[in-house]
Amino acid sequence: xxxxxxxxxxxxxxxxxxxxxxxxxxxxxxxxxxxxxxxxxxxxxxxxxxxxxxxxxxxxxxxxxxxxxxxxxxxxxxxxxxxxxxxxxxxxxxxxxxxxxxxxxxxxxxxxxxxxxxxxxxxxxxxxxxxxxxxxxxxxxxxxxxxxxxxxxxxxxxxxxxxxxxxxxxxxxxxxxxxxxxxxxxxxxxxxxxxxxxxxxxxxxxxxxxxxxxxxxxxxxxxxxxxxxxxxxxxxxxxxxxxxxxxxxxxxxxxxxxxxxxxxxxxxxxxx
Length: 272
Fold this sequence. Notes:
- The structure is a single chain.
- About 70% of the residues lie in helices and about 5% in strands.
- By secondary structure, it is mainly alpha-helical.
- A hairpin with a 3-residue loop joins strand 1 (about 165) and strand 2.
- Helix 3 crosses helix 9, helix 4 packs antiparallel against helix 5 (about 115-130) and helix 7 packs across helix 8.
């Protein structure tokens, strides 16, 4: 199984590289590829690469109309109804704590030693004082969670997302993120924990993620094409995470230039 997963990583990285080359060719064919705006548009086109759409749509219909309707959503609603919020918070804190070693490594691989140290500090504090992570003591000490997965590391390294994937039972993904998930599973302590603990942690994560989407589910139901809605939101979120929330933000130089241009425009109007 491990050899199969490692082979999957190699194939996924190759597909990601091919997609990155495809996106680069699209950008070069643009008449104004030298501008920042068109580079951004080329990047968006690469991230929305969906050659498997016919298959993805079939899987989406199964996930949402069958699996979610008859299993995941009912289980989630039942879990939320019977489980007290403090218990839910504690269990989710424990799940997050198991991810801190991965956050530590993935942050350092992105050249963020400060965030890596924060993740390591959170793991040490919450695993001891926080009773195996049930209590987020590190949060009260000012150590904010710095969540990073290996898929984001690949994105920072310049690896393209690859084809969009709708995975049975797992939902939206892409080749790069799927590869990152496989690598993250090889980080300690996932490699030494018993299977029931790993399965329980994954189930809690899935249920809490589904619970967080209940309030915004109406937006999905109102969309003209639910598949495209989910895909677009997924890639917007992915770009936001890889850029650490800097997508669409203007630099100080751009803001100052816009202010100067507006002042010149005002002066021109006053001259008339």
